[in-house]
Amino acid sequence: MALPDTASLPPTRTDFRDRTVGRLLRRPSALVGLILLAGILAMAGFADIAFPGDPLDMAGTPLLRPGDAAEFPLGTDMMGRDLASGIFHGARVSLLIGGVAALVSLVIGIGIGALSGYYGGRVDRALMRVTELFQTIPPFLFTLALVAILQPSIATITTAIGITSWSGLARLVRAEVLRLRNSELAQASIILGASDARIIFLHILPNTLAPVIVSASILVATAILTESSLSFLGLGDPNVVSWGGMVGAGRETIRTDPHVAAIPGVAIVIAVLALNLLGDGLNDVLNGKGERR
Amino acid sequence: MLTYLRRSAAQLVFVLLGIALINFFLLHLAPGDAAQVLAGESGAATPEYMEALRRQFGLDQPLYIQFLRYLGNLATFDLGYSFRQSLPVSELILQRLPATLLLMGTAIGFALVAGCSLGFLAARRAGKLTDTVISIVALLFYATPVFWVGIMLIVVFSVILDWLPVGGMTSVEANLSGLALVGDVALHLVLPAVTLGLFYLAIYARLMRAAMLEVYGQDFVRTARAKGVRPRRIAWRHVLRNALLPIVTTLGVQLGSILGGAVLVETVFSWPGLGRLAFSALFQRDLNLLLGILFCSSVVVVLVNIAVDLVYTLLDPRIELG
Predict the structure, then answer these.
(1) What percent of chain A has pLDDT over 70?
(2) pLDDT tens for each residue of B217-251
(3) How far is residue B158's CA from residue B166's CA, in Å, rounded to a whole number?
(4) Which keywords does this Swiss-Prot/TrEMBL entry list (chain B) (predicted)?
(5) What's the structural domain count of chain A?
(6) Which candidate, A96, A109, A99, places its Cα nearest to that of A217?
C-alpha cells in the first residue's frame, strides 16, 4: 500500500464542523432545506404561544375557508377546529415522533451493523440473517400490525417505526465498519492491545459519522411520512393532533371543502422535503462532492 | 445455478421461520387471547366456557407446543380462520391478491417507464433547465405522502373535472362483461396506479440520473466518444443499458415498501385488494387475518427477489448466480 495521502485523512473535529456548515450553506438546496426546517421547528416551538388551547377543541364556525375570517387564517374543519392551530401543534407531534423513531432505529442499526462488521464470521452471518428478515417483511404493514396490537399512542408509534426501519442503516454501517476494521488505524489499536469496545467507539464509529448523518435525516423524513400515514388510517395517538389525522378527517369533505384535506398535506410535504434536501446537501458535502457544481 | 437454488431455498425457509416467530410473538403480545375475544363476542363468558374454548384451541398448552402447532399449520398453508369474515384466512387472501398484484404491477410499470425516461432526459441534459425541472419535480413527489396524492388527484380528476371514477374497481350498476369490463377496470385503475407510482417514479428518476452520470464517467464511454460514436447512440446503447442494473436491484428491495403503499392507496380508492383487507382486519381486531396478510406478503417479497436475481443474469450475462 502506498503512503497515506494527506488530503484524504479524516479532518479534525473543529475543522470538520466549520467547513461542513460553511459548505452546506453555500448549496442552495441544503440552504432551502435548512430554512424550511427552521420554520417548522419554530412552529413547533411557538405552538403554545401562537395558539394556546387544545387544537382538538371546537374554535369557531365549521368549514370556514381560508380568508373567510381573520382569526382563522387557514379556515376550520367540519368540527370547527382551527386548521392553523392544528398545523402548529401537529408540527410538534411530527417532529417528536420522527426524531425519536429515527433515534431508535439509529441505535439498533448502528449497534447491529457495528457488531456484525467488527466481529465478522458467525456473529455477522447471524445478524445479517436477522437484518434480511426485517428487510423482507413489508415495513409499513409490519408497523401497522405492531401499532394495532400495542394500541396507538405516541410511545408505541415511535417504537414501532423505530423497530421496523433500521435494516438499511445496519447494512450501511456494517459495510463501513468492515472497511475501517482493516484500516491501519484499527489494526494499530489492536496491536497496542486496546479493548474491542474502545476501538469500536473511539476509532471506528466516529469515522462512520458522515454516512450515518446523511441517513439520519432521511430516517427522520421517512418516519414523519410513516407516522402521517398511520394517523391517516386512524392509527394515530387519539389524544394529540397530527397532520396525517387532519388529512384523514378532511377526506369526508373533499367534495365541498377540499382545503381541509389539502392544507395539512402541504405541511407534511414541506417537512419531508426540508429533511430530504438537507440529507442531499449533507451527502454531497460530506462525501466530497461539494465543489462539483 | 444449483448452489444458488439451494441457497435461496435455505433463505426462504429461514425467512418463513422468522416471520412465523414474529407473528407468533405478536399474537401473544396482543391483550387478551383468542378465547377472550370469542367469549366477549358471544356475550357469555363463564369461566368454564373460557376453559373449554382454551382447550379447543390448544391455548392451555405450553408456549413452545403452541408455536410448533402454529408452524405445522403454516406448513400446510393453514393460516387460521377469520371469525369476522367467516372464511379461512388463506381463502380470503387468495381472493384479494389478484387485485393488489394488478394495482402494483401497473404502478411499478408506470413508475419504471416514466421514471427511467425522466432520469434519462435529466442525465442527458445534466445541469440544464430540463435537468433542474425534472430534479425538482422528483424531489417533490419523493416528499409527498401517497394518501394525500390520492386525495388531491380525486379532487382534481373526479370531483372538479369528473373524468375518472372516485374509487372501486368496476362500475357496479353497469353490469359489464368482456372487453367493456376490461375498459371499465382500466378506467378505475388509472388514479390508484398513478398515485402509487408517483413516489417510485421520483426514486427511479433520481436513481437513473445518478447511475447514468456515473456510467458516463467510465473509460469505455470515453473510448466510444473518442472513436466518434454519436452521443445519442452512446446514451442509448452504452450508458442506458448499464444504468438499468441498479434500478432492477432497487425494485427488488422496494417491493415490500410498495406493498405498504398499496395499503394506503387501496384505502383511499376503495380498491378491493389485500391492503383494504388488512385495513378492515385492523379495525375489526381480526389478528389472524392481519398476520396472515403480513406472512403472505413477506413470502411474495422473497419470491419476487429470487425472480429479480434471475432477471439479473438475463440483463447482464457477466453475472453468475452462485
Answers:
(1) 87
(2) 888 888 888 888 888 888 887 788 778 877 887 88
(3) 6
(4) Cell membrane, Membrane, Transmembrane, Transmembrane helix, Transport
(5) 1
(6) A99
CATH code at A133? 1.10.3720.10
**A195 domain residue, yes or no:** yes
Q: Which domain holds residue A213?
A: 85-286
The dotted CATH code for B90-315 is 1.10.3720.10
Q: Give the C-alpha separation, B268 to B151, whole Å.
A: 7
A221 touches B at CB < 8 Å: yes
Distance CA B10, CA B13 (A): 5
Q: Write the pLDDT tens digit of every residue in A108-149.
A: 999 999 999 888 889 888 898 889 888 888 889 899 888 988
> How distant is the Cα of A137 from the closest Cα of chain B, in angstroms?
5
Q: What is the pLDDT of residues A73-104, one digit of tens each?
A: 777 777 767 778 888 888 989 899 999 999 99
Q: Burial level of B63, CB count in 10 A (0-12/13-18/19+)?
A: exposed
Residues B159, A254: C-beta atoms closer than 8 Å: yes
Q: Which residues contact B123 (CB under 8 A, 6 or more apart)?
A: B131, B208, B209, B212, B213, B216, B235, B239, B243
- Provide the terminal-to-terminal Cα distance of chain B, rounded to the nearest Å: 6
Query: CB distance from A262 to chain B under 8 Å?
Result: yes
> Grid coordinates in use for A241?
393532533
Residue B165 · residue B158 · CB < 8 Å: yes
Residue A112 lies in a domain: yes
- Measured between alpha carbons, how far is B26 from A148 in angstroms, rounded to an integer? 10
Grid cell 448502528 in the structure block, residue: A110
Residues of B in contact with A267 (CB under 8 A): none
CB proximity list for B320: less than 8 A, separation 6 or greater: B313
Beta-carbon neighbour count of residue A261 at 10 Å? 25
Provide the residue count of chain A. Answer: 293
Checking ipTM against 0.90, whether it exceeds it is: no
Give how far B154 is from chain A: nearest CA, Å. 9
If contacts are CB pairs under 8 Å, which of residues 66-85 in chain B contact chain A? none
pLDDT of A225-276, one tens digit each? 999 999 998 888 888 888 988 888 888 888 788 888 888 899 999 999 999 8
* Prediction pTM value: 0.85
Cα gap B159→B154, rounded to integer Å: 6
B29's grid cell? 403480545
- Is A211 part of a structural domain of the chain? yes
Nearest CB to A255 within list B31, B159, B267? B159
Residue whose C-alpha cell reads 416551538 in the numeric block: A45
Is residue A234 classed exposed, middle or buried when 0-12, 13-18 and 19+ CB atoms within 10 A define those classes? Answer: middle
- b/e map A109-143, b = 16+ CB within 10 Å: bbebbbbbbbeeeeebeebbeebbbbbbbbbbbbb
